[in-house]
Amino acid sequence: MRTWIGSVALSLATSFSAMAQLDSPGSGGPVGVFDGWQTVPVERDGPGWVRWAGSRARIDEHALVWLTPGASIDPSLGVDPVARVSPTLGLWRVRGFPGEDGLDVTVRLAGRVGRDLRAVMPDLQLAHRRLDIAVPPSDPRYPGQWFLDRIAIEDAWAIEDGSPSVTVVVVDNGCETDHPDLVAHMLGGRDVIDDDDDPAFEPGSAGNEHGTACAGIVAADTDNGVGIAGTCPECTLRCVRLLSDDPIPLSADVAAYQFALDVDAAVASSSWGFVDPVPVPGPLRAILIELAEQGRGGRGALVVFAAGNDNRRIGDGELLAVPGVIGVGATNFFDETTSFSSFGDPVDLVAPTGAVTTDLTGDEGSDPGDYTELFGGTSASAPVVAGVAGLLVSAYPDATGEEIQQALRESAAQSFFADPDESGHDDYYGYGLVQPAAALRALAAETAPDLGPELDAGLTADAGAERGGDGGCGCRTMGRPAASGLACWLIPVLLIHRRRRRRGD
Predict the structure, then answer these.
(1) Active-site annotation holder among 123, 172, 181, 462
(2) CA 306, CA 382: separation in Å to the nearest integer?
(3) Taking CA 282 as the corner, what is the angle to CA 280 and CA 283, rounded to the nearest 5 degrees?
(4) C-alpha angle 303/443/346, rounded to 5°?
(5) Using CA atoms, how far apart are residues 207 and 196, in angstroms rounded to an integer?
(6) Nearest by Cα to 160 from 444, 418, 423, 399
(7) Which pTM does this prediction carry?
């Protein structure tokens, strides 16, 4: 039976509140809950369940209290703190009075939202899913790591092969941290489901190899005589176990990216999404923005998300639309978007859906061996871009996240099949197929010292050529030759010089 309370108006006088109408008793309408950036309709849907923006979510006795910086929990709120989920945001997981659930606490405290209490909401347990498919439909299977060849990764490796000081956090369903092709690059992780420091996968669970497969694409040990190569061969890995077969508390989502912030991650790779296309809850949105803007010592981390495999338009309020998030769609061997890849304005780049990667050893995983050829979906495309982002941070550790994103966008090779708008963006291909070597050269042009007007012109022309312009040097861009020039040899020399200085060679 649904329970409703009287109308409450939340003040518009502060940037931390908004109008939320709570229906009168017996009206049968939803409760409007302000979650920190939007007002969302919520109504009971049976014992322990609510409808959050139309999607079903489980709740328990916990709520989330979001305080302004420096504020503490006021005893008059009538809540007991359970865990400090995000010190960065001032987000606490709390319990209310005996017999109250998270929605009861939310409704009771709605009128207290104001200067110190930024928002209050149930600790929603939304269903998550991995964004993989066992064998990409309508796409042929190719032996070997063809996806690395499609982005000309060896051209990038000639400039930069990564740095152990650059950490990529894989937020997924856990990893086999002692896999023979991962252990050399793996540091400690986090399990935000069980709230411990063991990010291992759950034995016997469906799709338990997913996080290990993503980690292998990002930074598997390379040139070691076994297994596969990672996109960023020398980058460091950390894993977070977030995904589960059960609905997952919003506090765990926030804690996953708080961990990436705490360990000073350069890149966060996420090949997951919500089961339903829900508007991203405010606390999760806030921590993703914080990571993108203030991570990596204030320079900004790269937050990469897979676009999803539903072949649908991504809404403006969803995960990929969060400012700073890099949305990645999937392409096949012919650089066409796959039939399943979701699309829309939040798609920034596309990358090949890498099939060959690390699998769980022994009887677990999708293959009897330690590797699989069955990984796919946008789940396999996002870690390709995450690895490329790791290369760029390794080459230019002082570059801002926005500068790196701009280099990725401007250097991408737009598909022949695309119909881009005046900004170069296509709903299906974003700004194009990621091009790591071209992105490194574009970033070199952006961050190069003042060499005088003639050399600066050569650098600018070269970067323009990578975007399909008329000028530039004879560097490889999707097989298109360009005219030679001074900038063609100067940029690699500058890059190699920077690389040697950083490594002390």
Answers:
(1) 172
(2) 5
(3) 110
(4) 35
(5) 21
(6) 444
(7) 0.79
Contact call for residues 405 and 292 (beta carbons, < 8 A): no
CA distance 228 to 207: 20
Q: Could you tell me the CATH superfamily of domain 128-440?
A: Peptidase S8/S53 domain (3.40.50.200)
Q: How many alpha carbons lie under 13 Å from residue 482 in its C-beta half-sphere?
A: 23
Contact between 346 and 325 (Cβ < 8 Å) = yes
Cα(269)–Cα(218) distance, integer angstroms: 9
Residue in this structure with the two tokens 């995983």, named with its chain if needed: 365
Annotation says 123 is catalytic: no
Q: How far apart are CA 384 and CA 396, in angstroms?
A: 19
Catalytic residue among 342, 379, 394, 411: 379
Burial of residue 98 (number of CB atoms within 10 Å: 0-12, 13-18, 19+): exposed
Task: Please say if 425 is a catalytic residue.
Answer: no
Tell me the sheet residues that pair with 83.
93
Q: If 0-12 CB within 10 Å is exposed, 13-18 middle and 19+ buried, where does residue 474 land?
A: middle
SS3 471: coil
Is 379 annotated as catalytic? yes
For the chain, give every domain's residue range: 31-124, 128-440, 448-503
Parallel, antiparallel, or unpaired for β 302-306 and 325-331? parallel
> Which of 210, 359, 381, 426 is the catalytic position?
210
List of E strands, 451-505: none
Positive or negative torsion for Cα 344, 329, 233, 461: negative
Q: What is the pLDDT of residues 454-491, one digit of tens each?
A: 444 443 444 444 334 333 333 333 333 333 333 333 33
pLDDT in tens, 120-159: 999 999 988 876 543 322 222 223 677 888 999 989 988 9
Tokens at 191, concatenated: 């399990």
Nearest partner of 241 among 130, 359, 126, judged by Cα: 130
